[in-house]
Every structure is written in structure tokens, then in C-alpha cells.
Amino acid sequence: MKHNFELIIDSIPYLIVTGIPIRNSNNEIVDFEISFVNSAMKKITEDSVEAGMRISQLWKNSENSTGFLEKAKAVAEGTPLVDEHYFSKKHNLWFKIDMFYIQEEDFFVTTLTDITADKNFSKQLQTALMTDSLTGLYNRNGLFQYMEKVLNEDEKNQKCTGIAILDIDNLKNINDSLGEKEGDDLIVKIANILIGFKSENYKVFRYGGDEFIIIMSNLTDEDEVAYIIDDLYNLLQTNKVKLSGGIAVSPVHSCKKEELIRYADMALCYAKKNGKNNLTYFEKYLEKAFLRHLTLETKMHTALKESAFKQYYQPQFDVHTGKLRGFEALIRWNDSELGDIPPSVFIPIAEETGLIVSIGNWVLETALETIKDWQERFNFNGIMSINVSPLQLSQDNFIFELSSMIEKYGVNPALLEIEITEGVMISHMNETIDKLQAIKDMGIKVSLDDFGTGYSSLSYLQMLPLNTLKIDKSFINNITSSDGIQANITSSIINMVKNMGLETIAEGVEQPEQLALLQKFNCNIVQGYLRGKPMPLNLCEEYLSGNEKALLTINSL
Questions:
Q1: Which strands, in side-by-side order, build the sheet including 211-219?
Q2: What pTM was estimated for this model as a whole?
Q3: Closest by alpha carbon to 167, among 230, 212, 133?
Q4: Above pLDDT 70, what percent of the chain?
Q5: Taking the CB of residue 120, how many other CB atoms lie within 10 A of it?
Q6: Do the beta carbons of residue 76 and residue 101 sit within 8 Å?
Q7: What is the DSSP string of 330-355?
Q8: Rounded to whole angstroms, what are the CA distances from 461 to 70, 182, 418, 518?
């Protein structure tokens, strides 16, 4: 008849085995004799375990027998068993093993707890954490584990590993114009193309919102990476999918996963800047360019914080009378270490990083403060033209900020001109047109800068609420060519624009012959080194005070 404690233990679902230490002549434990086995243990072992057996016999035929007796001895000697798990292939179950030694009774207890459900849940959770829900691909968590593995294997076997970062071109525009569902459908389509491209030594990951990473492993050399990339690019073109990509190779560029990803990303950025829809290999000069980019970005933050930027002003003149029309406000930056940094270098970086919004606000406020001062000191009533970037204009509070600045400085809006480029039309076209109309309704002029450098300039003229059109310097450069082609194009543009009721400004006028032709074509305003270079504030004020010699021109010493 069973004792009460045995009945209780039999009712417990855990697998329980108790035993008594067997000692040698030196009082050392050499094994344990089983004294009790509960019903759960008997059931799972099909009554093959019973009292009188030894612990060493219990695990003798187990696929994981190594170390059980040693662990039991260690526990009896005072070393606790920590987080010990055992998988039974026969039953396809996971168990957590606990061992206790009751010294006062010289008695040993082993319990096995079924943790299969917990293990399965943990595995499912890990899979969920490592898998992208939209595409089913492994995400960046899965990427890093996989990269570590293949890089180590390829390094050991003297093989190459290729990594390609692919970024969908213009996905944001698709989401904004057609909706996020269309964007998600495109992501899934591309994922399926990438998955189906190749299977052996090739794995695809979704790295971010519009980015994928491909790992190509166990390759002979860098050329094999190139062959795979060429085939992939052709497949993407066949499917009319536009992606930009950057490629780095181990060990050619680095053996470290973090560096390979960084190098591939540098190459991707280069591909984006050079027309998109192409795949670019990392080169060392890209790292230098990246570091310079990073240095300029850091310095730009400091320059903005410390008010290190300067405002220059380039005069604009009436073509026929030579009268001053006004000035265009132009930002300049001189760094103590790098010297003069052209706007063509730092403005694109400011646009990429979003700093252009803060910089643009500084330009706008500085220009308004300046024109207010000139009105009071020199009775200036000319135009102040101020460039506004697409990102700055797209800010929800732009109109409010502009209106607040005008009110703050008490400037007549009719003396202001906001210059935009065709870039404002890339996205949110209707919203942009509404904002420009609001600016125009405030009495501020709206000018389209760099006309002729885009692909759809003529169509934009029909949509934008403009006052002024600036003909790009690239048109003016060859206006005096003997074939007359550029002159005819420029003349046609001026006539067309005048018929639309717009004022025309010719940029980059540097030669008297160019000026003569623009007078003949009835262009309204000229801007360029022939009549006036960009000037610092003090020279502008000298000029406005009546000193004609303060004006800097192409003929200035």
C-alpha cells in the first residue's frame, strides 16, 4: 500500500525519481539507487524504470546520457544545477531538469518538467522577431545572425561573400500619390522577384521600409559576385522594377559585417545621387566622400548654432534703363578649417539632412531684417529675392512663419520675391500650388528659378501661380554662338513668357554681347557678373548710399 506522500507525488504531472547515494570505501558517491518513481515517469518510460535501478542505468540508453550522473554527483556535493534542459527525440519533448540533494536524509530527488510548449512559443516568438510580416523574409535581426555565420565560414574556407543593399526608387512618391497599399504591393512584388532569382548560396532579407539586403556566400572571387549582380540587374529591368543598389565584398573591402553594410550603403547613396536605377560597387573614394559629407554635416550644425553663415546679395538691373531692380539674397559659408564652402556643396547636404529648413529660415529672416534696415536708412524700395527649398516650402507652418516674420519686421510684402525651383512639384502638387497662391495673395512675388534645367518646365508654367521666370545661366552661356540656336530658343522663351504676363530675369550675364541680345529680345531684368557680383552687406550699403564704385563686377580688380 502506498504512503500518503507517494499518492500525492503520483498525482503530480512532473516526472519524479528519488534515489539514495551509493558510496565507495572512501565515502565518495559513485551512483544513486532509485528508491521511488512516480506514475508520470513510469508512463512515459513504459514501466522500464523501477525502484532498485541505478541512476546510471536510467540514462544509459538516452540520446543525451552524457553527464547526468556527473551532474547528480555535483549537486550532491553542493553545486546547484542551473537551467538544464533535455530533449527526448523518442517523445519529441523538451524537459527542464531539476536535481535536489537533501543532506540530512542523504536523499536525492530529480524532477523533469515538460517545457515543450514554452520552447515552441519561444521559437515562434523568435521567428516573429526575425521575420518581416509583409514579405515573409527575414528582417535585420535575422540578417545579422546569418551574416556572422556565413562570413566566418567563408573566411575559414577562403571564399568571398557579397552583400548588396537594394533600395526601391521613389517609393515615397508612390505611397503619397497612389496610397500605401500600392507601395506595399510593390514591396511584395520585388521580394518575390528577389526570392525567385537564385537559391544556392543566396539569401534575401528585408532591411527596412524600402530596402532589401542580399547575401551571396561561398563564392570563388569578386568576379562571381559581379556575374550574379549583372544577372539580377537584368532581371529587375525585365520586370520593369527600378531599384538602386550598393555592393560590397568580403574580404576585398572588409571582413566585418558592420563595415560591409556601411560600405554597401555608401555605394547605394552614390547610386541614388547619380540617376538612380543602377547598382554601384563600393570604392575607397566613396568612403572619403562619405567622411567629408559627415564632416560638413557636423560643421553645418555648429555653423547654424553659432551664426557662422553670412548673407551676400547679388544686384539685379533693368535691361533697358540700367536701374537697380533689387537683390537676391545668397547664403555663404566660410569655415575656419575648410575655408570657403560653395553653396553647391553644402546646400545638397542640408537638403538631405533636413537642415535646409533651419538654414532657409535663417536666410529668410536675415533678408527681411536687412531690407527693413535698408528701407529706414537708404529709402530702399527695390525687390529682395529669397530662395526657398522644396523641403522648407513643404513644412506645414511655412506660410504662418513667413507671415509672422513679415509682421515682425514690418516689411511691405510687395518688396519680397520668393524663388522656387521645379523641385517643389515632385510631390504634393496641389498642396504646393495652394501654398504658392497663398504667398502670391499676400502680395509677395513668386519666381521660378533655373528655368530650362528641368524636364517639364513648360507644363509647370501653366500650373504655378508665378510673377517672374528666371532663365538659367546654361541658356545665356551660348546665346551669342554663331549658329544662333541658343539665341532663338532664348528669344522664344522670353516672348512666350511675356505673353503669359510674366517678368523675365536672365541669370549669369557676363558679356556685353549677351546683354545686347537680351535687350533686343526684350528681357526685363539681368543678373550676373557683368553688372554685379554677389556682395557682402557692407559693400551693398556703400552702393545704396551712392558709391557706384562699391559695386563688384567682372571688371573689378
A1: 202-206, 211-219, 160-168, 243-250, 279-281
A2: 0.64
A3: 212
A4: 91
A5: 11
A6: yes
A7: EEEEEETTTEEE-HHHHHHHHHHHTH
A8: 86, 30, 16, 21
Q: Which of 441, 429, 434, 497 is nearest to 468 (CA)?
A: 497
CA distance linking residue 55 with residue 429, whole number of Å: 79
Instruction: Please state, in angstroms and rounded to a whole number, the distance separating the CA atoms of residues 17 and 20.
Output: 11
H or E stretch at 498: helix 485-499
Q: Please count the residues of the chain.
A: 557
Radius of gyration of the chain (CA): 38
- Reference 472, options 455, 448, 488, 496; nearest CA is 448
Strand partners, 36: 18
Locate 425 and state its grid cell: 512639384
Indicate the average pLDDT of the chain: 86
| 236, amino acid identity | L
Q: What's the Cα-to-Cα distance from 129 to each of 126, 135, 184, 368, rounded to whole Å?
A: 5, 14, 20, 53
Which of 26-30, 119-123, 337-341, 478-482 is predicted with the least confidence, judged by mean pLDDT? 119-123
Pairwise CA distance, residues 215 & 370, whole Å: 56
Q: Residues near 241 by Cβ (< 8 Å), separated by ≥ 6?
A: 189, 190, 193
Which pairing describes strands 416-420 and 383-387: parallel, antiparallel, or unpaired?
parallel
> What's the confidence (pLDDT) of residue 459?
67
Q: How far apart are CA 27 and CA 460, in angstroms?
A: 98
> CB of 436 within 8 A of CB of 455?
no
What are the respective helix, strand and coil percentages of the chain, to the nearest 5? 45, 25, 30
Q: Which residue has the cell 562571381?
A: 224
Cell of 333: 559659408
pLDDT value at position 540? 96
Q: Is 90 exposed, middle or buried, given 0-12, 13-18 or 19+ CB atoms closer than 10 A?
A: exposed
Cell of 388: 526657398
Instruction: Please enumerate in sequence order all residues whose Cβ is within 8 A of that of 371, keeping only pairs 6 or more positions apart, or say none.
Output: 380, 384, 409, 411, 415, 416
Rounded average pLDDT over 428-444: 90
Q: Over 60: is that where the pLDDT of 66 sits? A: no
DSSP codes joined into one string, 224-290: HHHHHHHHHHHHHHHTT--EEEEEEEETTT-S-HHHHHHHHHHHHHHHHHTTSS-EEE--HHHHHHH
**Rounded average pLDDT over 516-537:** 95
The DSSP line for 145-193 is HHHHHHHHHHHHTT-EEEEEEEEETTHHHHHHHH-HHHHHHHHHHHHHH
C-alpha cell at 142: 535575422
